[in-house]
Structure formats: structure tokens, C-alpha cells
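WARN retry 2 of 3 for item q-0093 after timeout on previous attempt; input resubmitted unchanged.
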Amino acid sequence: MKKIGLSIVAAAAIIFASCGGNSTNTNVSEKQEVAEHQGDVFAVDLGTSSVSWKATHKGGFAPRWGVISLSSGEFSVADGNIVAGEFVIDMSSISVDTASVTEADKEASDLENHLKTGDFFAVEQHPNADFKITSVTDLSGAAAEGAVAGSNKTVSGNLTLLDSTLNVSFPAKVALEDDKVTVDGKFIVDRTAWGIKFGATAADPAEWGISKDIEVGVNVIGTKK
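OK item q-0093 returned
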């Protein structure tokens, strides 16, 4: 981009729970000013970059995982550091890995279809999500539990889902090598903070156990223009 989921229903919602890790490696706050582009521009390689998700029902039951495609993105690099960047996430591409659906009466496609409805991402009205970098700084001290091995930076950016934008900060392994830049990170967020509240209360006994946390993995690779 120029600027960066009982019944089938309950089963689908399972995938938007925590993956069993903790959220100590992630800080969520109000949206912040987006970093300005300067220096060299690196275009995100859509063929090799990926966004992954992993989630479970409360208690670690029935894990689900999958990927979501990027539709565009770029980084700015100055003095050997990423100073700005963003990428667009194509929410209509959200998929459930068939290997994660082991129950005989469940289908990955049923989960995928439910995730695209108004219960979750309402992709017809909101086909894209985006992440816009607000800062990239040296990681202070050891990375918290759950961080990607070799994390050396703290990446902060505004994450927009539906109509909501919040700032997310997490440790990441950032590497710059000649004409290539790689950002490899992982964070856990509470989906309800962005207004995705299906199954998040005890109002419906069939839904109350659906956890609110979701783990997101980003492995984004850019090449110099």
C-alpha cells in the first residue's frame, strides 16, 4: 500500500482465541502519528511475504491456524534502519489450514466463510486491514516470552481492522542486507479492542468459552526499488 474466527459458528470463532502464549510481548495503545517516508524505498515482495494467525478455544482446545495475503506494501530505509513503512492485508484471502481441522464434522471452508461475515471481519464492507509503522527502535533488554528468536528491534505501528485503529508494539527480528529488508515478528492482541466481539461474553452458553486473544505472525520481505 502506499500508506501499511457447539456449532459451525462456535467452531469458527475458536480460531480467534489465543494460541496458548501470553501477551507480554505486545503493547497496545491509542493510535499514533505515522512515521514519514525518507531514504530508500523497498517494495514488499508479495510472493514471499506472509501474515499468519494462530488461535485456540479457551484452555488450548481445538487449535486453528492459517494465513492471510498481503496486497501491497513498502518500507523506507535511511542510515541502515527502517524509518517508515506500511502494508495492506487482503482480508478476503483469510484461510484456515486444513491440517488444523481434525474433527470429522468440521470443514476449513466453513470456518473461512464465517470469518468473512459481520460476526468477525465483514470483508464485504472492509476488504482490507492495514499496518502503518510509527517507529522502529532498538530492542531494550531481552525480548519477552513469545517473541521471535533473534528479535533485535521494537516495531510499533497503527493496526486498522474494521473501523478501528490502535497502535501495536512488539519485538521483531529486523535484518537489512544489501538490497533486501526483512521484518519477522509475532504479537498477540485482544480482538474485542477492535470491535470484534462475537462470542466474547457469557450471554450465550455456547459461546462464552471463546477466547478473545489472537496471535499474529508477520514475515515481510522488501526489495530495494
